[in-house]
Amino acid sequence: MINEDDIFFELKFRRPGSIYTSTRKEEDIPIILSGTFNGRTTGMPLSIIIENKDAKPIHYEEIKYKPRPGHADITYIEKYGYENWDYRGGGRSSGRETVSRVAAGAIAKKLLLLTNTMISGYIKKAGDFQIENTPEFNEVLCSRNSPVRTIRNKEEDLMKLIESLRKEGDSIGGIVEVIVKNPPKSLGEPVFDKLKADLAKSVLSIPGVVGFEYGMGFDSYKYKGSEVIDEIYYDEGFRLRKNISGGILGGISTGEDIILRVAFKPTSSIAKEQKTVDLRDLKPTTLSVIGRHDPCIAIRGVSVVESMVAITLIDHYMLSGIIPRKLSEEQSNIIEKRWLEYKQKCT
Amino acid sequence: MINEDDIFFELKFRRPGSIYTSTRKEEDIPIILSGTFNGRTTGMPLSIIIENKDAKPIHYEEIKYKPRPGHADITYIEKYGYENWDYRGGGRSSGRETVSRVAAGAIAKKLLLLTNTMISGYIKKAGDFQIENTPEFNEVLCSRNSPVRTIRNKEEDLMKLIESLRKEGDSIGGIVEVIVKNPPKSLGEPVFDKLKADLAKSVLSIPGVVGFEYGMGFDSYKYKGSEVIDEIYYDEGFRLRKNISGGILGGISTGEDIILRVAFKPTSSIAKEQKTVDLRDLKPTTLSVIGRHDPCIAIRGVSVVESMVAITLIDHYMLSGIIPRKLSEEQSNIIEKRWLEYKQKCT
Amino acid sequence: MINEDDIFFELKFRRPGSIYTSTRKEEDIPIILSGTFNGRTTGMPLSIIIENKDAKPIHYEEIKYKPRPGHADITYIEKYGYENWDYRGGGRSSGRETVSRVAAGAIAKKLLLLTNTMISGYIKKAGDFQIENTPEFNEVLCSRNSPVRTIRNKEEDLMKLIESLRKEGDSIGGIVEVIVKNPPKSLGEPVFDKLKADLAKSVLSIPGVVGFEYGMGFDSYKYKGSEVIDEIYYDEGFRLRKNISGGILGGISTGEDIILRVAFKPTSSIAKEQKTVDLRDLKPTTLSVIGRHDPCIAIRGVSVVESMVAITLIDHYMLSGIIPRKLSEEQSNIIEKRWLEYKQKCT
Amino acid sequence: MINEDDIFFELKFRRPGSIYTSTRKEEDIPIILSGTFNGRTTGMPLSIIIENKDAKPIHYEEIKYKPRPGHADITYIEKYGYENWDYRGGGRSSGRETVSRVAAGAIAKKLLLLTNTMISGYIKKAGDFQIENTPEFNEVLCSRNSPVRTIRNKEEDLMKLIESLRKEGDSIGGIVEVIVKNPPKSLGEPVFDKLKADLAKSVLSIPGVVGFEYGMGFDSYKYKGSEVIDEIYYDEGFRLRKNISGGILGGISTGEDIILRVAFKPTSSIAKEQKTVDLRDLKPTTLSVIGRHDPCIAIRGVSVVESMVAITLIDHYMLSGIIPRKLSEEQSNIIEKRWLEYKQKCT
Q1: I need a labelling partner for B340 at 20 to 30 A (CA). Which of A311, B99, C291, D26 fits?
Q2: What CATH number does residue C37 fall under?
Q3: Which chains touch A (3 or more CB pairs under 8 A)?
Q4: What is the band of A55 on the pLDDT scale with cuts at 50, 70, 90?
Q5: Is it true that the peptide bond before B191 is cis, omega within 30 degrees of 0?
Q6: What phi and psi, each to the nearest 5 degrees, are found at residue D193?
Q7: Which domain holds residue D9?
Q8: CA of A287 to nearest chain C CA: how many angstroms apart?
Q9: CB contact under 8 A, C200 and D212
Q10: 3-state helix, strand, coil in chain A (%, to 5)
């Protein structure tokens, strides 16, 4: 069963509207146009419409002649032509397109419950704010109720940071960490479609993402091989003592939790003055981006990263034959039960 | 024109055989089986054979029952079955498969010269060794003659580190930085096939790679938006003053140099004792990996990363129609001339 | 420029509503949801909605328990499960889905005018009705104004056949012939993506299509090689005297007109009694399909085949770099001028 | 288990060397370069080399300046340039490339035995020769031992036809019919990847193939709907009384035998004089193709069509999860047993 409520449940965690994110009021009510019948998917593509009821094109009039630094404006104009460029918020390069990813991600997340697999992320670093070790999965999951999408008992520090950035009209980058709890073994296809490769592509397709790593990631250079040897033991299958490899070995999932991190750049739309070019005379000019932008796009980005991870896993479930063509009644019931539990957590 | 010498030229930079890498003697002589006629590609697939003349299966007898920590052994056994597992070096998950990537990369690199685009990388970090800023492209290119694949006037520090690791039977992780010089504008396809996404997938498909970033990458969380605003100016097209975005905006190349970094984990095959499971009785046992392994796989990995970047760019050249179906005589001659210059650099 | 009128122009030729086709009244008004800005495509995916305002689910109540012979009912029930089956007209396997193909085809057809390439088809055979030779392209094009989609000065015979079938509550199969006028040379990718292979796949994806051929097609067995030798001559490029190969040699377009034929089976939904199974008890039962069905689906199928051919050609234009990423003003103007002429023909 | 003998068994049925086919002596001994270990596939790509030991480039010297009518010569020269054209037999457009398809097909055919599915074809029509109805599968299978690849008790007529064509230096087209015995239900993916669509593409990718049909195919126009209604009944699943739809409904397999036909054009290389252009001066000239060509390429084409059908089915088995990632011992044993039986039939 899939209905609009299931999708809306996840959309809420991406939705702007608080003082810690964009103050835009996007209702984000999804409508399923086709693909289900009596609440069941028919095997047809799902078509979902999510209207944006709070667009303010007036905010974008200045941009019409002043491409914004850090945005896709100049690359779109070069590639597609100025005449074909939709200056009213960036079009397909707008962060708004990520609402579709979260809608699809909701369905993927629900389906992953067949194997009792869950995905959740949180803000690990932003400016001086930092969560040192990888928290328990439940703590991570409960960050979805945090206004700044981080571990609840640490969230105040990040709230203060965001408040001060908003006052300054400035922004900050951030690192998102995502945990996949209870992933199945054997996901990933050598040579080119390794799980790590597909995860990297899917998260790098998100606007604002500039890096992907898993396991040791970019700290690897600090370690000797002997320091990061991870003992193999046997307990109803091969297990790894410390999961140093972050759930993936040889590009294939080990069955241990998958732990990955994603780097978001600072929001480019800031109120401070920026130097750009006037498209009418190609001479230098300046720009202050008016609008209701996120001081830290990584915060709302957490849901988007989770969604892309969920979608990528489902792709590999299908490659591996884990998801059958049609779920049995029993399988459907298990999923519904687990979905209910999943929704009720942290409340 | 493509011949075996062109391919061999690049294979040399990946080839093991020095005391700073694996001491295996792989000759790596490529033979073009099909796809060319009178030195020209016919439009057919190129089939290239590179035999491995120095394989020593005897080194792998112990592994037959002892999966190696940090390797794909356990994931391959789980996924494909013990009976179907080729224990003699890891098969398709062996670093040996990367020789094919470099062979294909050689052809891609030569073709990129049509737009005068060149790619080169070097070791940026390994243990305490570190190159602070991004060097000039020529310095990076000349690292191909360094025995430890780093900037020549800094190479001694890294040589000492590698020597001491070899003595200890240990290994180290490393960060590779790659520069794409003179890339064309407008490469990259929104939404999912952004250039950054395809680059991420292609390098994450390399064995041992655990992270990808470009531009600010994982340091993004340290910066405020106002600190990393990059001025747009106009000089026969849009330009960026500092290239903070590493050559890509909105997933599309800006025309500025593309700067990316890749994290390699420490070589897992080390002489030190490791805990694993004996496959015959599933009880704990220990293993010291005998063989001729690289103390730092990132060193030989530089060529492999360069190659994957080159191949990915050529894919996008083709998507963008930059490479015509058949090169004109003039285009062929330009490429040959630039290839000669490229080969002669740093000598 | 693309607007709703352009799309509607082509949708009209597929639309039911006459006594020679289905008498359903589908208005088929297209609405472009996204992907254009000021009438120009932005490079984003086009989202087009075409509502079906004359669906009569009541017609499908009997089918709920009686799968229709000749339809996808039994295969969908087996594959996706009875619970997930949308019995109200076949869902994704309904002929209704082809309206999307024609909408996309309209855009493809307009874009093909850049090379002055046009596509048109007509009913070549249905029962005793038959058009012997391949007519001139203009005659074929003007069949779009025929109520039975065939050559105008022969249409009466086919009209009579259809009228009598409608009275009997019966249907007939048909052969559609399509001509591509002025195709470019060099479309088609050896080995597996030959132009003939991609055309075959695209038209066989249409509901009701059971065969594809081009050039000599299934008559080949009647001919000796010496009878079908086609002289090569030179006139600003290689030409073929008789175009026996139907515009494709070695899987690549020769530049001569592409001539292909497609077989449609008789409409399966007929008023006559059919034997099937009652899904409630799995016992034999009978069914007469109520509804407003086409006596010959090939008639409305002509537009759908044309559209799939147009879409497939555009795919190959893009592979071959014929269509630039952004059209110049001059190119846009040429297309608009030719589109106007194309629309005004046969009036 | 897969070994060279398995592959060679199928290659024999495509191999030339009799007076009824080409008199070339191609040994077609396959060598597995990589992908197996102890006779089992490891999950790696299989690399198989089949050398052509009887190539006679001298036969192709005249073609160097005289493109052959009916061949891909002119389209390859236009697309890839004369300088890049391998005139010695057509290169990638040569019928020789089909040996690879049969090698892959052998493996696919063996794997299909897991579901007890078998594929075989025969010559249905060539000139005046014709097999009226679809024969029993065993008769079709035994055609593999016929020198003219048709039903054994009818083969003499076809042998006479071929002998007389050889004497005249002429050739003939032909229709191949293929039966898939015991296919599984539910293969095929709506909308665009219907089983019929993928089969069409795969067989149209074969050199010389100009048409595909299944079930009623191009005879459809002769039938009224009421004449071809096929009763649905229930016997451990839905069954069809007459299998008029040829095993596929709505693009999805019904579980009934799949029956398809493929049209091959007459061999273009004939000894009779043909008109072409001299590439040196672009003036008219004539050509008689010297060489050892097949009077009817459809004869050796039967194996190639069977192979493409087998490969396409295996693709859909994998999409449907029918073939597990690793076969159990029991499954392997069933396949080996059935393969032995399959090989021994008709002897």
Answers
A1: B99
A2: 3.60.150.10
A3: B, C, D
A4: low
A5: yes
A6: -105, 45
A7: 4-344
A8: 24
A9: yes
A10: 40, 20, 40
Task: Spell out the alpha helix ranges (H) of chain D.
Answer: 4-11, 73-80, 98-112, 137-142, 155-168, 195-204, 297-320, 329-344
For residue D264, the Cα-to-chain-centroid distance in whole angstroms is: 10
Residues of chain B contacting D2 with CB distance shorter than 8 Å = none
Inter-chain residue contact C79 with A42, CB threshold 8 Å: no
The alpha-carbon gap from D336 to the nearest alpha carbon of chain B, in Å, equals: 16
Residues 190-219, chain C: which have Cβ within 8 Å of D?
190-194, 196-205, 207, 209-219
Buried b vs exposed e over D317-337: b needs ≥16 C-beta within 10 Å? bebbbbbebbbeeeeeebbee
D325–A324: do the CB atoms touch at under 8 Å?
A: no
**What are the pLDDT tens digits along chain C (347 aa)?**
899 999 999 999 998 877 788 777 778 999 999 889 888 888 888 999 998 876 666 667 777 899 999 999 999 999 988 887 878 765 678 888 999 999 999 999 999 999 999 999 999 999 999 999 999 999 999 999 999 999 999 999 999 999 999 999 999 999 999 999 999 999 999 899 999 999 999 999 999 999 999 999 999 999 999 999 999 999 999 999 999 999 999 999 999 999 999 999 999 988 889 999 999 999 999 998 777 788 999 999 999 999 999 999 999 999 888 988 789 999 999 999 999 999 999 97
Report residue C210 as tokens: 């059971």
Cβ contacts of D81 on chain B, cutoff 8 Å:
326
How distant is the Cα of A42 from the closest Cα of chain C, in angstroms?
Answer: 5
- Which chains are adjacent to chain B, needing at least 3 Cβ pairs under 8 Å? A, C, D
Both tokens of C239, joined, read 């030409």
**Interface contact C250, partner B, CB < 8 A:** no
* Full strand arrangement of the beta sheet holding D258-264: C129-130, C118-126, C174-181, C258-264, C209-214, D209-214, D258-264, D174-181, D118-126, D129-130
Structure tokens at A33: 């146009």
Per-position b or e across B234-246, b if 16+ CB within 10 A of its CB: beeebbbeebbbb
**B81 at the D interface (CB within 8 A)?**
yes
| DSSP-assigned letter for residue C237 | S
| Token duo for residue B231 | 């001025």
Say if the Cβ atoms of B92 and D325 lie within 8 Å. no
In angstroms, the separation between the Cα of residue A330 and the nearest Cα of chain D is: 20
**SS3 of B57-117:** HHHHCHHHHCCCCCCCHHHHHHHHCHHHCCCCCCHHHCHHHHHHHHHHHHHHHHHHHHHCC
Q: In angstroms, rounded to a whole number, what is the distance separating the alpha carbons of residues D307 and C187? A: 26
Letter for the amino acid at D3? N
**Considering its fold, how many domains does chain D have in total?**
1
pLDDT in tens, B305-341: 999 999 999 999 998 889 887 899 999 999 999 999 9
- Give the pTM: 0.94
Nearest to D226 among C170, C188, C249 (CB): C170
Listed in sequence order, the residues at least 6 apart from A132 whose beta carbon sits closer than 8 Å to its beta carbon are none
Residue pair C200/D192 in contact by the 8 Å Cβ criterion: no
Rounded distance, CA D166 to CA B23, Å? 62
Question: Is the separation of the CB atoms in C155 and D202 below 8 Å?
Answer: no
Q: Using CA atoms, how far apart are residues A282 and A82, in angstroms rounded to an integer?
A: 13
Inter-chain residue contact B211 with A226, CB threshold 8 Å: no
> What residues in chain B have per-residue pLDDT under 50?
none
- A325 in contact with C, Cβ within 8 Å: yes
Token pair in block for residue A231: 């003992």
Contacts of D286 (CB under 8 A, 6+ apart): D273, D274, D275, D276
The predicted pLDDT at position B90 comes to: 56
Chain B residues near residue D76 by CB distance under 8 angstroms? 43
Helix H or strand E segment including D34: strand D30-34
